[in-house]
Amino acid sequence: MSIYKDYLKEIEERKGQGLHPKPIDGAELLSKIIEQIKDVDNEHREESLNFFIYNVLPGTTSAAGVKAKFLKEIILGEEEVKEISPEFALEQLSHMKGGPSIKVLLDIALGSDETLAKQAAEVLKTQVFLYEADTSRLEEAFNAGSAIAKDVIESYAQAEFFTKLPEIDEEIEVVTYIAGVGDISTDLLSPGGDAHSRSDRELHGQCMFEHNKEMQAELLALKEQHPDKRVMLIAEKGTMGVGSSRMSGVNNVALWTGISSSPYVPFINIAPVIAGTNGIAPIFLTTVGVTGGIGLDLKNWVIQKDEEGKTIRDEDGEPVLKEMYSVKTGTVLTIDTKEKKLYHGKVELKDVSAAFTPQKMEFMKAGGSYAVVFGKKLQTFAANVLGIDVPQVYAASKEVSIEGQGLTAVEKIFNKNAVGTSGATLHAGSYVRAEVNIVGSQDTTGLMTSQELEMMAATVISPIVDGAYQSGCHTASVWDDKSKANIPRLMSFMNDFGLITGRDPKGKYFPMTDVIHKVLNDITVGDWDIIIGGDSHTRMSKGVAFGADSGTVALALATGEASMPIPESVKVTFKGEMKSYMDFRDVVHATQQQMLKQFGGENVFQGRVIEVHIGTLTADQAFTFTDWTAEMKAKASICISEDETLIESLEIAKGRIQIMIDKGMDNEKQVLKGLVDKAETRITELKTGIKPSLRPDADAVYHAEVIIDLDEIAEPMIADPDVNNEDVSKRYTHDTIRPLSYYGGTKKVDLGFVGSCMVHKGDMKILAQMLKNIEAQQGKVEFKAPLVVAPPTYNIVDELKEEGDWDVLVKYSGFEFDDSAPKGLARTKYENMLYLERPGCNLCMGNQEKAEPGDTVMATSTRLFQGRVVKDSGEKKGESLLSSTPVVVLSTILGRTPTMAEYEAAVDGIVLTKFKPSTKQLVR
Prior knowledge:
The protein has 924 residues and is of the alpha/beta class. It is 38% helix and 15% strand. A 7-stranded mixed sheet has the order 8-7-3-1-11-12-13, with helices on one face. Strands 30-31-29-28-32-33 form a 6-stranded parallel sheet. The longest helix is centred in the C-terminal third of the chain and has 20 residues, at 643-662.
């Protein structure tokens, strides 16, 4: 059967799913389609024309190369297709976003046919996705006296590709749709279990609202009733988009409610409108900007205060909220983009100027942030060629500089890495471009990142990036047909692009499924680094790291830069002393609890950087804190360390990077060796005092300061989803932190999970020692609930084997992962035993393994959202309680939550953490 007939067969199969033909990205299929177009008598000619014109992915896909070549032949008169005139061919090239299309346009513009050259030049003036090979050709032609090249470069210098775009509408009418009450996880918009389909945008769109067809139908009906308005998705009494950046979530919202980006590229929509009572989660808001969308902070429910300014609370101690205005489904509102206000009719509801900063409005005008980033680079190139200052077209980078005020840690990092600024000292609120040192891509968003790279015509990683890693952790648990189809292709693309990859496309080293955050934490060897990663838990214990959508990751890989405001910071310090039977995870949860208590229920961490003066904890344990800050809704976090602690962390990182090198994971550019060298240089600087560890200035200014009293932490702390709270907005928030005694030693636990990025080698050793303790106390170890254990990295497994702890775990386990025969199916049932699973995300991701519906899960992971780790059953809500490793282990031994007496006995003699607050001044 021919490749075209295979495509027709696939089309028929997709029809059965209510889907259109899949967009074409392969050269072989498009070549066959072109062959049929040339044959005027071919029975498939008409449909082939439609496929060619309307169903080919742009950028650097192999299909785009074939399409650009055929369009060039039509423009030059070498081929004639009556339905595609040379003018129409040029129009299609203008929608192909770079790569082969730019090459064709330059070939024609710099060619000998003057008429065609001028036409191609006019199209070139609208393009922004040019790379060095393209700009070099233009510069050479300019230097050789080409009038066309001069004309194009002068246009670029004035940024006409941006200035000639239509302005955004002064008034945008929206109709509201309440997507949920309380915080809305991105899992609602793009469920983790559907991660395999994210790169097939139309197919993935079917999972919107977790496949809730009733909600989808309501949304469609609303659009039909209001064809002249945009639908605004709202998180009522909550924050929209908590949990992750998830570009696929924004893509789904845009697919259902947005605007088509091009008539010739299917299913790529832009400009969604999203809102929340408490705004949009910071990393998700960045993703909205990638698509040129609008994200509103409604504040339509407000905490009530008494005459003394104290929060008024109800009989349960919860803050009393007052509805300031209604946004119930079907409400028609007007966004005035000129006045930057939200109206209901003529009644002003809210100032929304934060959503319409000059930079955000540029994203909206350009159809997304990529075009602005590339446009600025292109304008700078053109101005340099012409020998002129860069004309002020784009909004000037916002520079906030306060004389006499010191710098927080994040302000220091941005001042070091900022590019294109005036040179003034920058404080929070500044909006800057900054160079990125480390970039991470994970496997369920990586396919989208590779698509984004193709669509922005990028072919190689930016030389200014120190290192980048492509993981295989999110699909580690089950090596099923979907993984076999997607992951090798992803690894091959990223390896060719210049990333270190978990899997070697050539098969020279064993496939690694290490959790991406752990790998990034090891390969980050600079405390002044900026890290961008395709996951919300990109929170490192060195430098400052930002979780990002797949597109921002692609942009960082291609350009080595990211653009963002310098966030405000909240300073966290510690006092008191930890009790010997407490785990550092309890400190993490207590931080959230004590912060909320200190600020009357207001989350001062949300949208800000948590500057945690952790001082004495090395990278592994410190990462437990920074990792959780995603659940605190912080934008990022920074660990302030003593010099000696940072040296110890860098030595650990060096050793782990060397293991990667020894396994054969380094590439031709010896990126990993370069990181080892960088770590050695930094260690020398620290030891000699040439450059001490990163510390804020003593006179730095913070949005708030939080002091955590370790003496108050008297028992293990558990983050509870509070699934039965009468106020649905209080469910699944991560803010309900309860002491172990709350459960009275009676709450049934159906499954335990020790794993995800929140655990480290120390947790595995604690697990081994607890099992030995329990056997010594009770004569045997008997599980009354299943315990799933997934070490985060192979390095940890190897180290445990060397030290003997892995043998202890194997002794008590009923299953040990086998990489020579990985699981091909996800588990649907668990026995009451210990499972030693393959390193990776496992249950935390929720896309492969899950607990049984209705289970109560006790887990070390980070996610307690509805349906993430466990779905509801018809009889009972599933719930995922989050706690420390000792609590999880003991809960599975007992089949219930332990009492304090049982807990203390089980951890007797185990050093859970050595954390003591630093006694040194961690400021400059």
